[in-house]
Amino acid sequence: MPSTYYGRRPLAGYIRKGHKLGIPVVRGFDQAVWDKLYPSKHSKKTQKAEAGLATSASGAPPKRRRRTDPDLAKADRPTVSDLVLVIHGIGQQLSHRMESFHFTHAMNTFRRDVNVEVGTDQVKAHFRPDMGSIMLLPVNWRHSLSLDEGGYSDGTEDATSNDFTLKDITPDTLPSVRNIVSDVMLDVPYYMSHHQPKMIAAVIREANRVYQLWCRHNPHFAATGRVHLIGHSLGSVMAIDILSRQPTTIPAHLRNPTPLDLSSNQIDHFLFNTTNLFLAGSPAGFFLLLKKAQLRPRLDYPSATAAADPSANNVSICGERGEYGCLPVENLYNIINGYDPVSYRMNAAVDRTYAASLKKAWIPTTVGSWFGGPASGGMGWFAGGSGSTSTSTSTNPANAAPALPRLPSTVELETHNFSLEEIAEKRMHLLNDNGQVDFFLRYGGGPHSSYWLLRDFVRIIVGEVGRRGGREGTGVGMRAVKDNKAGVAGRG
């Protein structure tokens, strides 16, 4: 309209300045013209995530497909073959008052980063043949749980009883500090108290609820899909507690969770078999020490490594259901940020002497080259060859190290107990195809909750979830390497 601000002839001024008037009409749909008229408001990372989700299998990027056939783009999108459930640790009560600590928001960002990584050609080239895409969902067990409803109670109502809560005993000084301690740190002593069964039941209930909803919306997933777990902080300890009592394989009548009534059926285990268990910022090694327990593979668990070596499936190497630390998983990864004071190693919980003979395992970093180059020490993440724990050498005979003269057997047996070392090596490979469970991040100095922001962490999740099973599917940069300088201490 004419005004003192726009002038007496506003339309003429708009046309003279090159502004578009009216609604543009496009004869025949053209994606390139549409994108020019209405550019996407998504960020570059979101656009890459959408492209990665649609191109985790072989094929052209979705924009190229949409220009030729809009229906084909949607039809060619691969189905989800791997579901990753993330169990958070302590501190989610804090999210009720501080939005920046919300676990679900962190998972949304983490999911986008995973989708970007899935679409990376360098990673995608090494996926197993039946690999589709990855869906990552949070297990918010803490929000549905109230632990401070009162102190001691014997179950009888008494007018003279004194039921007090955490709020009643908290002083009103230093409120900001006390609120953080109450909402974050007290989850740990709660778990060490009589509240532990209630917390474990909350994790099982929420994980099964999320899995059931996923299977209802994806009817074929229960029969063909794989489920993986990521446990962060205290969540990793609870995952080990639950999996130690988990059936070796899910009973046949529970494999399809969609018709089950979870509200009436009190199920004390997950409704899915766990393929890979990733621990991030985990104090689980300390809990294994407290309980004087060992990490052991599960007897009769049908993993690719167990199928390749049937002799390893015996009670001297494997454990049974109910033993703390005996896990029915194909691979266990303990991912450690060296700047995280909560993380503990776990190799020694498998075998202390064998763990001392291994070099410290650094996760190949994306800074430089992941699949080869200086950042990976000249070795690619994925490469051919067996998953041997010996140090890799060049295939060129001229570059090969000279053969060492073999010592007499009497001297060898004085410093080595090969039967025990063989048991430890088989046990370690049954727990992880790479021959070790501890993996250190090279970069990422930051707080205990910074794992979701690290690209190296994202890539190890995507790479290990998507790779082929067994030792042949492992990457050179992830395999255990013997430390020749450390030597092997004798076993008493």
Tell me what you see in this structure.
This protein is of the alpha/beta class. The protein has a domain at 79-148 and 171-393 and 438-478. It contains 20 helices and eight strands. The chain has a six-stranded parallel sheet. A two-stranded parallel sheet has the order 5-6. The longest helix is centred in the middle third of the chain and has 22 residues, at 196-217. The termini are far apart. Residues 54-60, 71-75, 150-155, 369-379 and 383-414 have low confidence and may be disordered. Residues 270-467 form the DDHD domain. This is DDHD domain-containing protein. One of its GO terms (molecular function) is phospholipase activity.
SSE layout and pairings?
Elements: H1 10-16, H2 31-37, H3 44-54, H4 62-68, H5 70-75, E1 80-87, H6 103-118, H7 121-124, E2 133-139, H8 166-169, H9 175-185, H10 187-192, H11 196-217, H12 221-224, E3 226-232, H13 234-244, E4 274-280, H14 284-290, E5 296-297, H15 304-308, E6 326-327, E7 331-337, H16 347-350, H17 352-356, H18 409-415, H19 418-431, E8 438-441, H20 455-466
Parallel strand pairs: 1-2, 1-3, 3-4, 4-7, 5-6, 7-8
Helix pairs in contact: 3-6, 6-20, 11-13
